[in-house]
Each structure stands twice: as C-alpha cells, then as structure tokens.
Write a structure and sequence with these properties.
Layout: E1 10-11, H1 18-21, E2 26-27, E3 31-36, H2 42-57, E4 61-65, H3 70-78, H4 84-89, E5 93-97, H5 114-127, E6 131-135, H6 137-140, H7 147-163, E7 167-173, H8 185-188, E8 191-200, E9 203-213, E10 223-228, E11 231-234, E12 250-251, H9 256-261, E13 267-268, E14 272-277, H10 283-296, E15 301-305, H11 310-318, H12 325-330, E16 333-337, H13 345-359, E17 363-367, H14 378-394, E18 398-404, E19 425-434, E20 437-447, E21 457-462, E22 465-470, E23 472-474, E24 477-479, H15 481-566
Parallel strand pairs: 3-7, 3-8, 4-5, 4-6, 6-7, 14-18, 14-19, 15-16, 15-17, 17-18
Antiparallel strand pairs: 1-2, 8-9, 9-10, 10-11, 12-13, 19-20, 20-21, 21-22, 23-24
Length: 567
Amino acid sequence: MVKASNVLKKVPTGIGGFDEISGGGVPAGRPTLVCGGAGCGKSLFATEFLVRGTMEFGEPGVLMTFEETADDIKKNVSSLGFDIADLVARKKLIIDHVRVERSEIEENGEYDLEGLFIRLDHAIKTIGAKRVVLDTIETLFAGLDNQAVLRSELRRLFGWLKERGMTTVITGERGDGTLTRQGLEEYVSDCVVLLDHRVYGQISTRRLRVVKYRGTLHGTNEYPFLIDAKGITVLPITEAGMDYSVSSARVTTGVPELDQMLGGQGYYLGSTILLSGSAGTGKTSLGAHLADATCKRGERCLYFSFEESQSQITRNMKSIHLNLDPHLKKGLLKFHSTRPTVYGLEMHLVLIHKMIEEFKPTVAIFDPISSLQAAGTLEDSTNMLIRVIDFLRKKKITCFMISLTSAGSKSQEMTDVGMSSIVDTWLLLRDTEVGGERNRLMYVLKSRGTAHSNQVREFLITSRGVRLVEAYLGEEGVLTGSARLSQINREKAERLAAKEELQRQQLTLKHRSQAVEAQIEALRAGFLAEQEEFARVAADNKLRDKQIELNRQAMAKSRRLDKQQEA
C-alpha cells in the first residue's frame, strides 16, 4: 500500500498545454476522471496519456477497454503518429479488451469485480505498469441497476487502484445533470477533467475544464483544445499576462520611405502593428513587403491568410516585383490559409499558438483580422486577438495585423475589431477621389515610443514595388495622382520660365555692360587724344618760347656788336 505524502506528487501527461493548466499533470498514484459527451476526445486523451507516458517518461501502461477492441484502438490512433502495435510488441503497453454483455450478467447481491481485478493485476505485473486507463466506466456497469451495489463496486475499484499506486485515467460519459451517468465517479476521483464539444453558429469547438483537483491549485476556466495529426493541444488562453519584457531593436518595414516616416528605423522588434484601410488600398502588398524584408534577413515569417490562398498571394505579389517563392523553398516563409468559419475563434487561437511554437517566426502577419468576426462576435474576436498579441509580445515576435474597414470618411480612424488602442503602431491607408481619379494616401496615426511623421504621403503600387511619395498641397488640399503630376509640371514650367527670364536679363545686362565698356573706351581714347594734343601744344609753346628767347638773345648780341663797331 502506497503511503500518503504531505506534498501531492504529479505525473506529467505529455499532452501539450494540459500540464501547464493542471500545474504539472495528473495526481500520481490516484484516479483521474475524464468525462464528456460523445466525440469530445475522452478516449484519445486517455490513450495519449498512456502513449506519451511510455515514450517520453519511460512509464509502461495498461489500457483496459470495455468498448473498442485492441485492433480498433490501434487503427484509431495510427493517424496521430502513435505506433501502438510497436509499443505492445516491446511490452511497453498492454491493451486488454473486456467484453461486457448485459444479458450475461445476472444481478445478485454477490456481484463484484474480482475477475476484473485479477486481469488488471496480471497486466500491471507483466510489464511493471505505472499508468492505467479504463475506457469507459459506464460499459463496465451497464448490467447493474442496483445503485447500492454499483456505488460499492465503484468505490472498491477506485480504492484498489490507489492502494497499488497506479496513476489512473478513467473515462466516463456525461450524464443528465451530472458529470457522469452514475454521478459518483466525480466524487471519488481526485481529479476531474471535463471535455466538451459544442457547436455555435455551425462552428464546432472543443473545450477542456479541470472541474476539481484535490490538494493543488489549478486553472478553472474553460480552455480550447485542438486534435490534429500530433494529438491533443490545450491552450491556456486566460493565463496571458502583461509581465513581458520589450526590445529596443528595430526592424525595417520593407519600404524605405515608410522607415523614414517612422523615425528612419522602422518598427520596434516584438511590437504590434495595425494596418487598416478599405478594400483595394494595398494592405496585403505592404504586408508582403514586410515578409520579404524579414526573409531576406534570414529570419522566419509566418503569414496567416483568412481570405486568399498562398498561390493567390504569391502570384499577385509578382506583379509588384516581389517574388516570395524562394523564401518558401528555403523554409523561411510559411503560409497558413484558412477560412475563419472553418473553426471557432478559440480553435483558431489554439492553432495560431501551435504553429508559432513549431515554426518559431520572428514576424507573424494576420490578413485580415476583421474577417475573424465571421467566426464569432465582435467582442469574442477582439478578446481572441488580445490574447494573440499578448502571446506574441512575450515571444518578442513582431505582429503585423491587417484590418479591413468600410469605405467613407467616418471610418478613417476606427477599426471594426476595436484594436487601435492596444497596438503600438497604427497605419492607415485610404482612398481619395479628385478629378475623376481614386488615389491612395498613407497616415501614421500613432507609433508609441518612436518619432514619426505627421505628413500625409501618397501610396503608390508600382511594377517595382510599393512607394511613398510626398503629397503636394494645392488650394483644395492634398494633390495626388494626375493632379499632383499637373502641379509638378506647372511648377517645372514656372521654374523653366523663370530661368529663361533670368538668362534673358543676364544677356541684356551683358550687352549693356559691353556698350558701357565701349563708351568708356571711346571716352578714354578721346581723353588720351586731348591729352596728347595738350602735350603737343604745350611742347610747341615751349619750343616757341625758346625760339623767341634765342631770337631775343641773338638780337641783343647783334646790337652789342653794332655799338662796338661805331665806337
């Protein structure tokens, strides 16, 4: 007999997400009841508990089934990648099918389960089992109407398993107003897990809830779970917190002009970006630029598309010179294209978590999140997206969400999913109609923690990719398209005319300068001529005066000679 311990030990199930919700798994050496309606996944939960216990934790197990044969079970779980036959052959697992027929049971006061105990004890000792599954308990007591005997045998069965220290999972069908048909298993079990498969608006969702867990804290909310090719995955969606750290690193948007509008560096790593706009404004093209830039850095990008297939997106992006095929071949880019109505919102959330954990991207793109309203209400879709954002922020994964808004001026600064206050950066694309043309404009409505432009830029989708050009302002506001080109041409013509006028005036001034220079030269020549004439006259006068003086001297000399002769 196993001695009780003050600290409740737990055995991990290996089922993704469940061990986190339950704080470590199911109680060791005690019975756990897994109950629910038909098709909710009880048998699969129990079988995966055994298989993963054998494969991952080295604990052999015994599956005692009262409905399906061993061959049926092997076939049913083979699609999940579980090789039951191999585990049985290696004596890691025993499957014992116990056939119970009501017609063969004679109810009397001495009815008991001794035969079952003997078979179960033999199977446990044969392989040294640590885990046991009984599937399903109702079939075992199908022939009993005596409630006193039934309750007594149920208590004895659960007590027998606890005495041998078997960590046991028992499956049971949900009853009318009770968790099980007998209404007793839920009270004698130390842990009760309720599985539910519900349909709302023609969309089915599976959910799990830990109804009780003796001796330990556990999540008590409902958690969606997914059954796929790898088994069961449970998502603890209500445990998302805000205790994550943030990064100061920046990543490019894929469009240089948009990087400039965001302080010249792009988005913060691990931040959440919302791009909203009406149909046809180029939202997917901008998302594809981000995916392309991410993959060119050698990082992974996961693209969730809710309206277009992978082939549609890759084909359409080639028209703007974006070839995403090489990134797909290298495994850097992965698309997940599905209609929102294929699953419920919580199932979408489980699938997103699962793919993020497996692919480990640095950027996740959701195109468009507004279509998720088709899978639920506005409030439900908003809550689901908040959980996605919290999850990605904890992982430091850059989240790029595209939202389709209704056309019209009243919808420019609002989103149908109400995410504008939660995101870090909000970009808006809208159409404007001027002069018979529809053109696109981009706004940076907000960008937390970064300097960003308040300018309105024209958004162009060209054969060489997306471009953002500065919009021109005219008398009637922002000019785009042909109006902007006309304005540019007019400004060019005005600049050319001004340049030509300046050149004409420069030529006129040059001619006037040359004329003035000619006049100056003529005046200078006249002045020099007058100066020369003045010098000549002065020289003549000087020569004349000298000659007069000479003549005077000669006359004087002549007179002296005459006087001498007279004497």
